[in-house]
Specification:
The protein is built from nine helices and nine strands. It has about 325 residues and is α/β, with parallel strands linked by helices. The protein has two domains: about 10-130 and about 295-310, Rossmann fold, CATH 3.40.50.1370; about 135-295, 3-Layer(aba) Sandwich (Rossmann fold). A five-stranded parallel sheet has the order 7-6-5-8-9. The protein has a four-stranded parallel sheet with strand order 2-1-3-4, with helices on both faces. The protein is globular, with a radius of gyration of 19 Å. The mean pLDDT is about 95. It binds phosphoric acid mono(formamide)ester. Phosphoric acid mono(formamide)ester binds near residues 53, 55, 127, 271 and 273. Phosphoric acid mono(formamide)ester binds near residues 52, 55 and 136.
């Protein structure tokens, strides 16, 4: 499969076969004997209009590990966006500076797709508002595969802000490409999974034996799941609804004692940052996997860059 020059904007742009191919390439890139030369002299443009710790740093380190470099900005307030330069023009300018690939994070849904239209080099969506975060989903899938040994036939509970959490949107759409998965959406009613994704589960789920249900109480699900995927309340996307954000801030708080009936191999995952959703005592549990999950982001992003830049096939 050839990913050279491909944009990664939505997990829906990838077939199951393409996702599997990316995940199966990770080990070979990670242990590549000539890794430091795979992307030698290649440069990634980093256009971060929103804060980031993991996505930004892992892309930077990934490019360095492959022998390449990065350049760009991580705070739109020091760019000409404050002078009302359009996203289209900002992308066009970077496109003309000889970069090989562009990584963009932006608060608006559709921003990465627009960037891909404006750009002649491949664009990777590092998160567009509440919409999609496909590289997070690839690292989530990699982490699930690594711990569960499969992506079919799993029971996955997604917990928290399912309305605005882009990682759970991408993960739901990804798991619908697999077979016989049970998806549990646990959230307050005000922060439920968007209707279009519920409709998609309803329509496409039965084609591959996938089911879903919506619930409110995390305690009702812990014993039955293979993966417990927690998310924080996306306060920055609730805008004027800060009272709602405060109300739900601690609504789902996982503590170590709640894991006593979990399956032995059940893993707790979280895209991070966490706020109050996971108590520190969970970190010492064999079920905790969120730090390894974040580390896997480095390996998955190395692989994506190597594939898109044509360094591996
Ligand atoms: N998971 C994730 O996207 O983290 P950052 O916002 O820190 O990049």
């Amino acid at each position: 499969m050839d990913f050279k020059g491909k944009d990664i904007i939505s997990i829906n742009d990838l077939t199951r076969e393409e996702i599997d191919a990316i995940l199966h390439t990770v080990e070979s890139v990670r242990k590549h004997p000539d890794k430091r030369r795979l992307c030698k002299d290649r440069v990634s443009a980093m256009l971060f209009f929103e804060p980031s710790t993991r996505t930004r740093t892992s892309f930077e380190v990934a490019m360095r590990n492959l022998g390449g470099q990065v350049s760009g900005f991580y705070d739109a307030r020091i760019t000409s966006a404050v002078k009302e330069e359009s996203l289209w023009d900002t992308v066009k300018i970077h496109d003309g500076y000889g970069f090989d690939v562009m990584v963009i994070r932006h608060p608006l849904k559709g921003a990465a797709r627009l960037a891909a239209e404006a750009s002649t080099i491949p664009v990777i969506n590092a998160g567009d508002g509440p919409n999609q975060h496909p590289t997070q989903t690839l690292l989530d899938l990699y982490s699930i595969l690594e711990t569960q040994g499969r992506l079919d036939g799993l029971t996955v509970a997604m917990v928290g802000d399912l309305a605005y959490g882009r990682t759970v949107h991408s993960l739901t759409e990804a798991l619908l490409k697999y077979n016989n998965c049970n998806l549990m959406f646990i959230s307050p009613r005000d922060l439920a999974m968007p209707g279009h994704l519920i409709d998609k589960c309803r329509k496409e789920g039965p084609q591959r034996g996938n089911t879903f249900e919506e619930g409110r109480r995390i305690e009702d699900y812990i014993a039955g799941v293979d993966v417990l995927y927690l998310t924080r309340i996306q306060k920055e996307r609730l805008e004027a609804r800060t009272a709602l954000a405060e109300k739900f801030r601690s609504i789902y708080r996982l503590e170590a004692g709640m894991l006593k009936d979990a399956k032995p191999n059940m893993k707790v995952m979280h895209p991070l940052p966490r706020v109050d959703e996971i108590a520190p005592d969970v970190d010492h549990s064999p079920h905790a996997y969120y730090f390894q999950q974040a580390r896997n982001g480095l390996f998955v992003r190395e692989t994506l860059l190597a594939l898109i830049l044509g360094a591996v096939r």
